[in-house]
Amino acid sequence: MAFNDSSLPPVSPEDAASLATAVAGSVLLPGAAGYDEERAVWNLNHELVPAMIVVPQSVADIQAAIVFAARQQRPVMVKTTGHQIVGHAHGAVVIATRRMNDVAIDAARRTARVGAGAILSEVVEKAAKAGLAPLNGSNLTVGVSGYTLGGGLSPTLGRAHGYAADHVRSLDVVTADGERRHVDAESEPDLFWAMRGGKGNFGVVTALEFDLFPVPRLYGGAIYFAGERTADVLRAWADWHPGTPETMATSIAVMRMPPIPEVDEALRGKFLVAVRIAYNGTTADGERMVAPLRAIAPAVLDTVRDMPYTEVASIHNEPTDPVPYYERGIMLREFPAEAQDKLIELVGPNVDTALVIAELRALGGAWDREPAVPNAVATRGLPYSLLGVAAGPLPMEQQLKSSVAAMLDGMKPWQADRRYVNNLAPDEAADAASIYGAERYARLASIKKRYDPTNMFRLNHNVIPAA
């Protein structure tokens, strides 16, 4: 099913005015005050140019936007923070959900109910007041909905509890027919299965309810070593992490830090290799387990400590403001000595690359186990996630892409046959069947045909409705 959305005509001022009378939020055409603010995304090298932006204040506003888009045969894109945007939204209606950011914590049930526009930091802060924590990602500025629908690979608690999608209790959704649906395992089992892992292919989530965990603190942080010790650190880490308990989540990152004020002075402009850990256990046990890592080489900086859960973003210490970059990831089915040698060759000392970070996350544990209510997450059973991030302005785009490709292509002998959708590039022409695997994709396509037969929600790593 091919679409040429760039050929769609502009939305007329009269049509926009008609929709504006039906919604409490904003309806914005190109050139209108607020349009540029609402189309802004996290990646400064990417641009959205939709035909219209609707900034809803209610579910009814979202319904009106979808009915409008259907009548005009336009695609719909949902945007919270814009951390992962696919395409430029030519001819599309963008629904910018940031105003719908309610967060309610039920301490007795250990759940959170959040609106479509909530971000992870808002959940972490409110849950912490009750001694609870979500399965958040490494960067707390990310939107909860997109992160969770893409699976949600938490580098703090995921190895012990699985994907964030595994712990969704219910979703409130507006589908392509403009209908509100309360989606859970009983009411809409197929749609519930598909949306948890199928990203934004099936509708607009207006609210979601998910589990929280009684984790008020962690032993965590990062140990940074000189990049010249990459081989020693990586091989030691690869030997060390399989023997750790599921309460220990860890990754390793080779980092070429830019010489900019936003970077910690101890790391600024340096070539480093960092081991990041998050341990949900006692500080004494954590220090005992981490001791072999600290013995590898002198640390440039060691931030591993007992911390309140509200400080977990400091473990990865990712940017909190938009930056120009390109990133792409793959999954590895194994990481033997030969793969270790190859990765060192690709990202270690003396490599000329625009890569800022090459990160390898160790998975396993609960990430491998099917949840009580199965879902469409495709990467269970795969032991590693490998991500490349290159940073620089748009004129460097080809260099950024080439640097990421050089690393990932070099690791192809160990690449798995499925992908983690939250780590795909915005312009990556990834066949969704190769993301999910043939059997899972066939089921997704069948459900897509039922709930979105015209493929309204196609501005993503698209599941095409079954023929």
TrEMBL record:
The lineage of its organism: Bacteria, Pseudomonadati, Pseudomonadota, Betaproteobacteria, Burkholderiales. Keywords: FAD, Flavoprotein, Oxidoreductase. Belongs to the oxygen-dependent FAD-linked oxidoreductase family. Pfam families: BBE (PF08031), FAD_binding_4 (PF01565). This is FAD-binding oxidoreductase. Gene3D superfamilies: 3.30.465.10, 3.40.462.20, Uridine Diphospho-n-acetylenolpyruvylglucosamine Reductase, domain 2. Residues 46-215 form the FAD-binding PCMH-type domain. SUPFAM superfamilies: FAD-binding/transporter-associated domain-like (SSF56176). Coiled coil: none annotated. Its cofactor is FAD.
